[in-house]
Amino acid sequence: MTFLLLMAGLGVLIVSGALLVDGASNIAQRHNVPPAIVGLTLVAFGTSLPELAINVSAVATGHPGLSIGNIIGSNLANLGLVLGVAVLIRGFNVESQIMRREIPLLLLVSAIVVVMSNDGLLRNRDMVLDTSDGIILLLLFLLFIYVNLTDILIGRADDPLLVQASTRTHVLFSRRNYIYIAAGIPGMWLGAELTVDNAVEIASDLGLSDVVVGVTILALGTSLPELVTSITAALRNQSALALGNVVGSNLVNVLFILPVTALINPLPVDRATVSDIWMALVLTTMVAIFAFTKNLRLSRWEGGVLLGVYLAYISWRYSGYLA
């Protein structure tokens, strides 16, 4: 019953997030916000709303392990599961100049988080992501937003990612948009509360830590929007959008959701979490190597490698805690 309630909470989160994003994006377009901005916001922020809701609820109820596990686990799932499956469906050409910049940026940010998570060893104190770490990441996030807005408003109008992001937006001139927002906000809160409460109970019943539940069960659940978006984009031969969905969501997770959570409550980092953070860097490095070799193309076998590495790591993650 607890697991069913957890799945119900995730379902409410995802549906509420979709309603909130649809309502906000349609209203934005109605007020002449460029479609590319709306499309990229929908891709990056919209699919990350479940993580944000869960993290705020988790730290507010005294379970920071769920928060950091959910963030890092979601990034692992995006790179290994979501991107791996999408590339298996259809190999990707890395056409977008924006993605050629943001993949190295994600690699850099992942390395920064590795350093932040290990600075306790360097300073001989408990390892924790605290307020100063959060401020640094948020400053990087503002830079990330500024550069993207500059791309959209000033140049690169023919970039494949911007074109594909623009085509996925639509406008509904009705009061339904406000109804969507009015329903989405309390729905996100209710879904987050239901998800966190039952995730904590599952962790207690199975003898697992909050972190491992966040890395596995919660991360897989909150990555469903990215999975659906990327598979749909791959089937429509929109490789730039599928890749942008994963990279953009991971950047938002690390540069916005993680620091916001750390500002609310410092996030303790144990040795198992450090291994998760290192694994996220490994997968990001693999994506970068695959993307920038062989004529800037991600091949199906490379998607299979990403998926295989992710599944092997998650299997080890579970066995290590259940042993």
Tell me the structural class. Answer: mainly alpha
- Count of distinct structural domains: 1
Radius of gyration: 19 Å
Total number of strands: 4
Helix content: over 70%
The CATH H-level homologous superfamily: NCX, central ion-binding region
> What integer is the average pLDDT?
76
Query: Architecture in CATH?
Result: Up-down Bundle
Which fold name is given in CATH as the topology? Answer: A middle domain of Talin 1
Low-confidence stretches: none
Calculate the terminal CA-CA distance, rounded to whole Å: 25 Å
Q: What is the ordering of alpha helices and beta strands?
A: HHHHEHEHHHHHHEHEH
User: What share of residues are in beta strands?
Assistant: under 5%
Main sheet overview? 2 strands, antiparallel
What's the tally of helices?
13
How would you sum up the global shape? globular
| CATH domain class name | Mainly Alpha
Strand order of the largest sheet: 1-4
Write out key terms for the chains shown.
A middle domain of Talin 1, mainly alpha, two-stranded antiparallel sheet, 13 helices
